[in-house]
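Sample entry (131 residues):
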Amino acid sequence: MVNQRVVQMQLKKMGYDPDFANNGRAALQALERVTYDVVFMDCQMPEMDGYEATRCLRRDHRFARLPIVAMTANAMAGDREKCLAVDMNDFVAKPTREANLLAALERVIQLRGLRPPAEVGIVAGATGLAG
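Predicted structure, serialized as tokens:
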């Protein structure tokens, strides 16, 4: 909850109005209702973690190209690779630093050819941008 508030404040400061979900299942439900340009996915969530939520999304062709940025407190060697192995596009360590969040956002916006500001919605303790 604290991390969500921090990320929310950081994104609002950048001009975004993120949506939030409290767990992986709620994140998947939110993605059924709203079209997001970018999702910041918390890896450690109740009910369904970010790894499993990402695997579910990637199995659905509608979300095959959806940029997903991992957010995790696990910043040890191999954690980034674990995120990339489930087809997340980038990685931000928690607690987030505004500069790191912005850099990850800019990378996926450039990678996908999105027009800033992309819609950011926070999904399951994570963050996603809607469009």
